[in-house]
Please model this.
Amino acid sequence: MSPNVVEPDNSTALPMPMDLTSLFVPSMRGPQKSAFKSVMGNPTLAMINMAGGVPHPSTFPILQLRATVKSPGSTSTSSDRHSTLELEKSRRCQSTESLDELLQYGDGCGVDSYCAFLRRYTQRVHRPLYAEWGVIASCGNTDAIGKAVSLFCEPGDTILVERWTFPGALSSLAAARVKPVPVAMDGEGMLPEELDRTCRKWSGAAAPRAVYLVPTGQNPTGTTMSLARRKAIYAVAQKHNLAIIEDDPYYFLQLPLLVGTSNDATPDSLSDLQQQQQQQQKGALVPSLLSLDVDGRVIRLDSFSKVLAPNLRSGWITAPTYILDKLQILNESTILQPSGLSQGLISKLLNDTWGLDGWEAHLCELRAVYTYRRNLFIRAVDRHLSGLVEYTVPAAGMFLWMKLNLGHATADPAAMSQLLGSMKKFGVMMAPGMPFSSTGSVVDTAESGPAQPEHYLRAAFALVDIDMFEPALKRLAQAMAAVRAEHSQPLPDLVPATGIPSTVVDHSAITN
Ligand SMILES: Cc1ncc(COP(=O)(O)O)c(C=O)c1O
Model:
């Protein structure tokens, strides 16, 4: 089965996507098929199919699956706000496949009812502007990034990325021996003029063919591109004929901005924020790059990790169907298909139990919860770290990216190691900037970049209890004070003229 094509009623009037095949690595350009399928072909109904190593479903021991789920949009754990969803062994339950089908081998596209929901939802939210697009299931964005990159890059190639970026993407690139080319950012993410300037440095076959970016609630910087920024980035991608890998796991966690962040401001109550979200519904979301994509050059990666649960390991990729055909083959040669059980649960929840409106109510609830947390956290930062940090209020996602003022210690390349040691002593942990650096250095590589190291911490306000915000930030302030006190005098010229050694920190624990 090929990836689902959008219903003809809304696609026939739309133009076909551009053909990006020339941007693919040579091994992806020709038609691909799994070796087995190319020998066997597809079975017809009349055939007695004895070809596959497929177990008989009567041997599957799971006879029924029943899950209790919250009502959409409810934070309540009380049982009167619950619904039950059920999957049956050999019987389809409304829209969703039977357990026997979900547990059986399938093709690399994903479970039909799961993909059908996501296609409808993509149409509702992003309204793609070209014909013949579809969705395919993924095991979440980490897996999807590697697959999308492998369409355009082979060992030795380059890919454009944000100056600070998701370490999982950097690991994927390192494993594929693809070199990240950093593009400078500001408070709205990647700078279009810097993207253009960077692209102009190349010509011919060596030029990067793709840009990887996180446009919403960027990890680690928390930045969100405005509509104008998205349009400008898209225009540069058109100018240099780049494919865009839009990694957007925080898209649905767009958080209305704080009106004021003064110390005495009372945080909005959670119930006010919930009401506000329900009124705004989806209208308030910044359009995705996919929704601006007239050419079909965006490969959009969505994940359920931040909006349902990370270890469902489920997401979806949206792109022109000829690109999804390639990704299907990549699925079939690696994972075969994401877990049918996870897809079945999600499909049942979204198709039948919550429905589209329930799903949107759930997303509104999440936005209210994270807005509440963000607001409380920012106000606590202002109370405890005034003068010690600079930040942009994140308009989406889970992260506050703080540029640290370490006083005279700032110029010391060892300052971050000292600070992390001090934070450990005072009992608080946040992620240092280094593992997110696409240059491998704390110093900007752009010619116009600063001459001395910059020190950053990424604080995630999603997980810890909100009454831990104040103690965490007090501890950070103490840890910073200790480092600053050790450097009460300006340092002798510690910074070498060329290249600054990286801070020595064990980053292996930071993967997301
Ligand atoms: C930008 C970005 N992309 C991808 C991921 C991983 O997503 P998934 O859990 O879907 O693999 C994360 C998670 O931290 C992320 O921040």
Remarks:
- The two ends are 33 Å apart (CA to CA).
- Residues 261-266, 494-508 have pLDDT under 50 and may be disordered.
- The longest helix spans residues 340-384.
- DSSP finds 14 helices and 15 strands in the chain.
